[in-house]
Amino acid sequence: MKVADELGRERVLESVATRIADAIHYHLEIITEPLLFVAGMGSNGANAITTARILHMRGFHNVRVVAMVN
Known about the structure:
With 70 residues, this protein is α+β, with helices and mostly antiparallel strands. Helix content is 59%, strand content 14%. The protein has two helices and two strands, in the order αβαβ. It has a two-stranded parallel ribbon. α2 (42-57) links the parallel β1 and β2 (63-67). α1 (3-27) crosses α2. The radius of gyration is 13 Å and the shape is globular.
């Protein structure tokens, strides 16, 4: 994979995860219970991990990630 392709993929991943974080933040304005993200393999798993990171950076420190591996 070319570097430009990888950078494009990273930008898409970050953009998708940011939109997911926005939606979660909008619908769950005040989160009192832990949020659990279950991350599988591939792009969906990467989206879960990145979304959890973004929410944590926004101050939601009760975010947890479980990575499912083979």
